[in-house]
Structures are given as C-alpha cells and as structure tokens.
Design goal:
Blueprint lengths: L21 H13 L9 H12 L17 H6 L3 H34 L1 E2 L5 H24 L9 H18 L5 H28 L3 H33 L3 H4 E2 L3
Antiparallel strand pairs: 1-2
Helix pairs in contact: 4-5, 4-6, 4-7, 5-8, 6-7, 7-8
C-alpha cells in the first residue's frame, strides 16, 4: 500500500509551561502566595453554586406514552408509573448514545482516509462494520420505544446528558489537529461507556419482565464488547509502533 503523511509527536515551540518564561513564572507564584484561596466552604462562589444546585429544575422529563402497544397485561402492570418512566428514559439515553456513536464513526472514517492507518490498526471494513452496528442499535431503541407507545424523538433527561457527554469526544475526533490514535482514545471512552449502558439496560429490562428486550440488549452488549476490544488492540499496536520508532514505516493509506 502507498505510504501517506504521518503526524508524529515531536519537539516544538510549546510555551504552555512556566519554565518557558521563568520571570513570569516567578511573578505568578508570588501572586498566588499573596492571594491564597479561602478556606474550604467559605468561598462565595461555592455557596452560590450550592444554592443554584438546590433550586435548579431537572434537565427535563419523560413524556407519557401515547399508548402501550404489544405489551402483556402482567408486563403492563410491572411498568406502571415510575418504572415505566425510568425504562423510557434509559431507552432514550441509549438511542441518543447510539446516534452519537454513528456520527463518531463517520468522523473517524474521514480522519482515517485523510491520515491513513498502520499495521494492526483500524481498517475501513471494520470501522464501517462497527458504524453499521451502532446504526442497528439506534434502530433497535427506536423500535422498542415505539413498541411501548413512546416518542423516540423526545429528548429524555438521560438522553440529554448522553448527548452533551458525546459532544466533547466528537470535538476531539473532528479536530483536524488530532492524530488517529488520539481520536481512537476518545472512541475507546465512548465504547467503554456504551458497554456499561447496555449492561445496565439488560438489568432494567430483566427487572421489568421484558425478556425479549433483555435478550436483544445482551446481544448488543456482546457486540459493543467486541468493539471495545478491537479499539484497545488498535491503540495498543499504535503505542508499540511509536515506542519502536516504526510509525513512519508502519503507516499505510486506506485508499
């Protein structure tokens, strides 16, 4: 395969450290000594944050289902009230998370095509496969919410949190300055959280008598565990290549 451009970590004009300007560093240290922070608990800003936290409303709410479709009477009774709201909230969270996962993989494919990969690194085929898995999981959650008579387009509280969490990682992956291995590190964070989310949903579905949903979530969990293991292997191979100084020779184009 044709070799392509690399982005190795190198020495440069980094001026973020205090040693880059000793005089300014000393002045900053003196300033810090002259104005020590207040004792814990006495800072006005901290008290204001506490007050805002106590008085703040929730991020949102779970809209009531328009109808309960395809659910047996026993399961319907088990899902009444708070338990139904909790299930819908967590289903909404997974739907939002999987939607973000698709966007993350699409962005990662662009970075791979621009920078190339390495021996033992991600391939286009595997990235596309995992992207499609995320899309299938998104549709699974959409269909499950519709089956319960819920609105899959509604932003539940946990879905709101999941979207905000993923936005920071998406910024890392889409940043033109980040390397492929740096982007994969963000992807590993997502995959790790994704596995935990599916594991929790298995427990919730089981406790509410949703056996079919629990089985579907177990299958999704197994898939996400495979994703996570692959990303770890890709990062491991990149770290070993860099340690041996082989990144230039090992990197190949994805075209």
């Amino acid at each position: 395969m044709e070799a392509t451009q690399t982005r190795e970590i190198r020495m440069g004009h980094n001026r973020t450290g205090m040693k880059a300007s000793p005089l300014d560093g000393m002045a900053l240290e003196r300033k810090s000594s002259d104005t020590p922070p207040p004792a814990p608990g006495s800072l006005r800003a901290t008290e204001m944050r506490k007050e805002y936290t106590r008085e703040a409303d929730t991020l949102g709410s779970v809209p009531p289902p328009v109808s309960i479709k395809g659910v047996g009477e026993a399961a319907l009774q088990a899902l009444q009230g708070h338990r139904l709201a909790s299930l819908i909230d967590k289903l909404g969270e997974r739907l939002a998370f999987e939607r973000s996962g698709v966007r993350l993989y699409e962005a990662l494919l662009v970075k791979c095509e621009a920078l190339g990969t390495w021996q033992g690194g991600p391939t286009r085929e595997l990235l596309e496969e995992q992207c499609n898995d995320e899309l299938q999981h998104f549709h699974l959650m959409k269909q499950t919410l519709e089956h319960l008579g819920a609105d899959p387009t509604a932003m539940t509280p946990s879905a709101d949190v999941a979207g905000v969490e993923a936005s920071g990682l998406l910024k890392v992956i889409t940043d033109p300055c980040t390397t492929l291995s740096q982007a994969l590190h963000s992807l590993l964070i997502i995959e790790d959280a994704d596995s935990d989310g599916w594991d929790m949903l298995v427990e919730i579905a089981t406790s509410t008598g949703q056996k079919e949903l629990a089985d579907q979530c177990r299958t999704a969990l197994a898939t996400e565990e495979t994703h996570k293991q692959r990303v770890r292997e890709w990062l491991g191979s990149a770290a070993l290549a860099d340690a041996r100084g082989e990144s230039e020779q090992q990197r190949v184009s994805m075209h």
